[in-house]
Queue: 4 jobs
Job 1
Amino acid sequence: MVSNPERRAALVDAGVEVLAREGARGLTFRAVDTEAGVPAGTASNYFTGRDDLLRQIDTRLHIRLAPDPEVVADLMTRPKDRSLVTAFMHDLMARATRDRTGYLALLELRLEATRRPELRASYTKSVRGDLEEGIEFHRAAGLPGGDETVTVLYLAVLGLLLEHLTLPDVLDGVLPGVSVPEGLVERIVATVVPEAP
């Protein structure tokens, strides 16, 4: 395999674009080469196979969609209450909305994992790691609520992201006077996260 980190990153990002637009069935090395604007056969020099490319897309998306450390540091100067949790959820929603393609590619990875046991194991480990990291962050930050709060919040916001990024009209006007997604983020946090004592 060729070792040119910049070219590999460009190919993985091209894979993200193809995956989000065409789905896993459309993710071929030829499609990645075309998206990246490189000669045919280039991707096959960088990845051992389709599963390798999918795993590298998963890794890349966790970097692309990760919170900005400066934003986290700034938010952590605030009181450790429900409003801080709300601010973190708004940041998550903003990151997913800004990189809609990346988030849609994550959803496609989930679907592909249901069909491929070898990918399912890898992707389950990756997503479970994210959830555990969120639980640990919540604990360490001293935010209100415990592990159950974080888990329910994770599930609720995941549902909101799914609807907002795929079928946004589903949520328009469902709660009169509540904006999508901002107002729904606030409603979710107010419903799930207890007031600080």
Note: The radius of gyration is 19 Å.
Job 2
Amino acid sequence: MQVHEYRIKPATPDDIDGARAVMLDTVYRDFGTGYVPRWHGDIVDPVAAYLLPARHTLLVAVDGPGGEVVATAALDSRGPAHPPNPRHLAERYPSGGTAQLRRVYVRPEHRRRGLARRLVEELLAFAAADGGYRAVYLHTDPAVPGAEGFWRSLAKVVHDEREDPGGGQGIVHFEVPMG
């Protein structure tokens, strides 16, 4: 059995290709949507989305001495946009005061080892250290295996679109406690 020694760290320019590969593989394999520019522009240019803005970050988990990126997690200061998200969520979680968790993705062969939880803990510490965030928000597609259960273990559901007339986009929206 191979022993994995994961290291979680802020992404550097050297990590970007590996991080982008994890993200693209996830949107193709787990989401089944493939790359959709209006939803996934940050994946194409994670440097502009997460490395350059002072209040944003992209974390990676690297495996072993070779440093292969096996997981990602990002945070930015953009609240949920309306549309496509419900108006009341855009109003409750405004940009600037909201830390939005994004791209918490782990390669399938590295799942169930606590990596996503460790990455989220680091993102929450980053948000708290910023001092300007009043809430931490995220949304997930419950069709992704394990995603809804994982987020329910860490966060509070603030809106489940599956309960809307017509089912909305089927997305579940969460608030994560900062403390």
Note: The longest strand covers residues 68-76.
Job 3
Amino acid sequence: MEWGRAKTILILSFLLLNVVLGIQLWSSRADLLDLEANAIGAAEEIQRLSKSKNIQVPPDIPKDVPKLREIVVRFDDNFNPEKAVPLAAPFKFDPLISKGSFRDVLARTGIPKIESYQFDPMTSLGGTYVFHQLYGTLPMFDVQLRLFEKNGQITSYQQGYVEVQSDVQQKEQKVITAYIALRSLIENYLPSGAVITSVRLGYHGQVYNSQTLNMWPSWRVSLGNADGDVYYVHALNGAVEGPQKSKK
């Protein structure tokens, strides 16, 4: 008798678990469909807004909305981002080579911590190749390694490097979408006829005369004008900073 009751309870428990899992699966599916629909609607809205102001937007607007937090970094005194360091063995640099060969070439330069940086083609112009130090998979836009080309060879570099302070703990928040950032810029900041060449999520902060730097998740929006204007949109509260002139 006890075994029969236990079997019945066990069967009912499995049935209840299946119902709960089914509801969760349906809810997750509904969330995904809602997110996809919102993304499609947001993309269409950006197209309408940009068309009304004759503003060009790139086709590959990021759709990710990760959870991120503000960070505090400390500059490493062993690196001077304002000092050009000559290379003992200049080399030819071609950013169009395959990724594997790209890494191999950089590894042979002797530049310290070269694996911590990611190439940024948007700001690499006029014989200067710009890399940003990464935090996780995201670039820290204000922490750069810059390679300088002369007569077709990389002959020197400038390098900044930071350590992220591990004792700073802040709650992660979901960032605003790239579409929201673009909508704010198009409606309120960008002139008619502007050309947006790149939208990139990363970290940005204000550099003061201090060894530490507060950085927050930001959407970097680059324009294709003569000055290379760049806007930063705070990815947690939507505040807009810019335009800034890109360093060419």
Note: Confidence is low (pLDDT under 50) at residues 11-15, 17-37.
Job 4
Amino acid sequence: MLNTASNAPGVEERPLEKALGHQIRILRRERDLSVVDLAHAAGISPGMISKIENGAISPSLSSVNAIAGALNVPITALFAAFEERRDCSYVRKGGGVVIERRGTKVGHIYELLGAGIGGDLVVEPYLITLQAEAEAYTSFRHAGTEIIYMLTGEVLYHHAGNDYHLTPGDTLMFDSNGLHGPAKLLKLPMTYLSVIIYQRN
């Protein structure tokens, strides 16, 4: 597997085995069974049950079937964690939803480029265009972290008492709880990508 420069954790090795073992452990504990209890009921050694729960081995179909029977669940229930949907959002060029985001000002156009991804974090990617009639505004404030990547134009961008001169190719990442926004519009029209990331309530 090729790695990127990201520090995000890698994809788990043996994902099916890990998911299967995790689900078996959850179901066993819900039934207040020890490893020895489950092993006895399934006719499998306790050592084998431990290896299966830790995702260390690929159990045979007959072993999985025996464990499902001992837990009194259909065999498909043991694979529930592995079958969770992996979301993806695809937006064609020009197909983003133009929205009135909280605090949007005249001449500030927000095009939402993706939505609907599940998980604990909300990620909102916007293509923001500031047109000729746009005015400076530095009182945006909201939860999370924001990343701005300049595409066209030029701006003096304000964040928490500091101003940053941004031109195409520049990136600014900041705590969006601090007051922020374009302080001086140096070259219009201007476009930039804004990605806002925050915890889902």
Note: The beta strands are 97-99, 108-112, 121-130, 145-159, 162-166, 171-175, 180-199.
